[in-house]
């Protein structure tokens, strides 16, 4: 277990390094002079020179990288060019709504995906299985932003049940929840499709085991067999998928936040890219990537804690 | 279904009833009719023609992306898996690291630096898709490398190049083919997401994502703009996913029991 933990932790460290590198490269990929690009066409020579100085563009690439990583490790990504406040603080101002959305999306994906997958597995090769699997494949093929727009059209515009934009009033948890429903559905349904497929195959794997046959032979009720014997053993692979989906989920929040005009890391990322606010983009890329890797490592470690076979 | 989309993309100049970027202020936001199959958008542009031309962009991007990422990623995986050792260790750590990031985030980061254009979209999505091919190809190479015919070829003193091209690669094609199909579906989703966010191919060019994004502001009055172009994406991606599933069942004998039995 100790060796496994060490291995995962070194992976974590390496991936965070990778995130720093990618964030650093974003700036280096800019064709021409980054300072000129950031300040736009009307910038004065002096302000460009000042920004080049702040960004350290006069030094060698290796030096720039070293100083970037050094500062980033302390959470210092420089100031946002738009708000003039530390870019790192700006990220944490919108961290909560994005995490709420991601967690709510994960809950929705499990609420739909797990029962649907069990249903398909227990009715294998019967009409219900085909219908569920076709729906799941359809859900996987649907662009999440399009699904969001369709939900918006149905529930907000036509039925008037849910608000169309924003994340709700400050402090009111009921309003927050109300604003969260539709975005969470959009995100959760498309991921739920994947969870459905995984649940089905994990359940099929378990159902053919001997202990299920034994349980049946004992005359246990089918529901008890499915829930107590089969689902328990299929739970780990299912939860792993939900955990590793977290990355895709955070990627999805970028789109869902744009559709529902929700404040969050995703919409901040898009507006920062538009405004060429590169320090902000860098800070966001690092925080996004670090949270994803962190969750993946936690899932791996939990899995190993529960299932000794993985540790080898 | 997929074939239909392909035909539409190839025949775009013939099938498009109107110029996809021609404005017509007199015909703004018209519902679908005989003159405008999918209606018109807020500039009076024919949505059907825009969707038809958008099919070209999406399929072109998907094709080049899986081509570049497939060949590039598979080569990396092949060399890494075949030779093993320290090279393999380093390559796979880099691949693992890249796989940890969602493709959309990686593509967005690249687009943020490069700026928007068709070529940059292709570069960004291809970079985001490279690692998955490398990982798959390495795994397959590792199993093929130990097979008798490869060992025999090594014993006969064949060159590495000959072993790789004649013995290893032909035996890796099946899983790669499945991956290419499924990745093409993903590539279309990522490309349309980028254009939806306004960071893909630049307007007024017609892309599926851009048409959906244009229709957003008129969702209530003109749902056909976003609705129908989104349906185009979904059908194409669904077609590719079905093809991928079908290929997997066909090519992988161990899974053949899954469907039937």
Brief digest:
The complex is a heterodimer of chains A (312) and B (261). Chain A has 13 helices and no strands.
Q: How many DSSP H or I helices of chain B? A: 12
Content-based structural category of chain B: mainly alpha
Q: Helical residue percent of chain A?
A: over 70%
Instruction: Give the terminus-to-terminus CA distance of chain B.
Output: 28 Å
The portion of residues forming beta strands of chain B comes to under 5%
Mean pLDDT of chain A: 81
Record field, number of beta strands of chain A: 0
- Largest interface, C-beta within 8 A: A-B, 53 and 50 residues
> Any low-confidence stretches of chain B, pLDDT <50, length ≥5?
255-261
H/E series of chain A, N to C? HHHHHHHHHHHHH
The total of helices of chain A stands at 13
Main beta-sheet strand count, sense and barrel state of chain A: none
Principal-axes shape call of chain A? globular
Largest sheet data of chain B: none
Query: H/E order of the elements of chain B?
Result: HHHHHHHHHHHH
Q: What fraction of the residues of chain A are assigned to beta strands by DSSP?
A: under 5%
Mean pLDDT of chain B: 79
Quaternary structure annotation: heterodimer
What's the shape of chain B? Answer: elongated
Main attributes of the structure:
heterodimer; A: 312 residues; mainly alpha; 13 helices; 78% helix; globular; B: 261 residues; 12 helices; 72% helix; elongated; disordered C terminus
Characterise this structure.
The complex is a heterodimer of chains A (312) and B (261). With 312 residues, chain A is mainly alpha-helical. Chain A contains 13 helices and no strands. In chain A, 40% of the residues are buried. The mean pLDDT of chain A is 81. The relative contact order of chain B is 0.14. The longest helix of chain B is centred in the first third of the chain and has 37 residues, at 47-83. Chain B has helices spanning 2-10, 12-15, 47-83, 85-99, 103-114, 118-145, 148-155, 160-168, 173-196, 208-216, 223-251, 256-259. Chain B is elongated, with a radius of gyration of 22 Å. Classes of the chains: A mainly alpha (312), B mainly alpha (261). At the A-B interface, helix 1, helix 7, helix 8, helix 11 and helix 12 of A face helix 4, helix 5, helix 9, helix 10 and helix 11 of B.
């Amino acid at each position: 277990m100790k060796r496994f933990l060490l291995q995962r932790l070194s992976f974590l460290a390496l991936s965070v390094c990778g995130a720093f590198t990618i964030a650093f490269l974003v700036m280096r990929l800019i064709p021409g002079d980054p300072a000129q690009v950031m300040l736009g066409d009307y910038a004065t020579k002096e302000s460009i020179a000042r920004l080049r100085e702040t960004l350290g563009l006069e030094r060698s690439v290796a030096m720039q990288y070293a100083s970037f990583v050094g500062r980033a490790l302390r959470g210092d990504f420089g100031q946002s060019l738009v708000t003039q406040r530390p870019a790192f603080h700006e990220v944490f101002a919108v961290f909560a709504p994005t995490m709420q959305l991601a967690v709510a999306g994960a809950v929705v994906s499990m609420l739909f995906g797990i029962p649907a997958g069990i249903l398909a597995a227990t009715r294998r090769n019967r009409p219900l299985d085909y219908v569920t699997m076709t729906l799941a494949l359809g859900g996987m093929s649907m662009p999440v932003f399009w699904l969001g727009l369709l939900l918006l059209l149905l529930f907000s515009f036509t039925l008037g049940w849910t608000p169309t934009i924003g994340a709700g009033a400050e402090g009111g948890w009921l309003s927050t929840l109300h604003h969260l429903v539709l975005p969470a559905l959009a995100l959760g349904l498309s991921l739920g499709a994947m969870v459905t497929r995984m649940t089905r195959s994990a359940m099929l794997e378990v159902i053919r085991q001997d202990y299920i046959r034994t349980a049946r032979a004992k005359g246990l009720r089918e529901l008890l067999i499915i829930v107590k014997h089969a689902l328990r053993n299929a739970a780990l692979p299912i939860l792993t998928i939900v955990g590793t989906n977290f990355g895709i989920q955070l990627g999805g929040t970028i789109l869902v936040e744009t559709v529902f005009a929700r404040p969050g890391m995703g919409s901040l990322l898009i507006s920062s890219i538009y405004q060429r606010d590169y320090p902000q983009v860098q800070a966001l890329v690092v925080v996004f990537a670090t949270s994803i890797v962190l969750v993946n490592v936690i899932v791996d470690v939990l899995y190993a804690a529960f299932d000794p076979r993985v540790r080898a | 279904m997929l074939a239909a989309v392909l035909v539409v993309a190839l025949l775009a100049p013939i099938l498009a009833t109107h110029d996809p970027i021609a404005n017509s202020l007199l015909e703004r936001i018209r519902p679908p009719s005989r003159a405008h199959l999918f209606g018109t958008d807020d500039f009076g542009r024919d949505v059907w023609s825009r969707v038809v031309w958008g099919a070209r962009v999406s399929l072109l991007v998907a094709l080049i992306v899986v081509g570049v990422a497939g060949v590039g990623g598979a080569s990396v995986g092949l060399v890494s898996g075949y030779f093993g050792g320290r090279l393999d260790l380093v390559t796979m750590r880099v691949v693992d690291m890249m796989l940890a990031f969602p493709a959309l985030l990686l593509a967005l980061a690249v687009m943020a630096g490069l700026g928007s254009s068709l070529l940059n979209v292709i570069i960004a999505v291809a970079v985001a898709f490279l690692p998955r091919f490398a990982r798959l190809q390495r795994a397959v190479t590792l199993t093929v490398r130990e097979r008798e015919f490869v060992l025999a070829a090594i014993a006969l003193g064949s060159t590495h190049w000959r072993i790789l091209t004649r013995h290893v690669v032909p035996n890796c094609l099946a899983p790669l083919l499945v991956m290419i199909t499924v990745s093409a579906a993903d590539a279309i989703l990522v490309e349309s997401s980028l254009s939806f966010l306004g960071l893909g191919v630049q307007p007024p060019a017609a892309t599926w994502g851009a048409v959906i994004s244009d229709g957003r502001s008129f969702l209530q009055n003109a749902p056909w703009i976003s609705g129908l172009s989104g349906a185009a994406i979904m059908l194409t991606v669904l077609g590719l996913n079905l093809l991928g599933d079908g290929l997997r069942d066909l090519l992988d004998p161990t899974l053949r029991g899954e469907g039937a039995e």
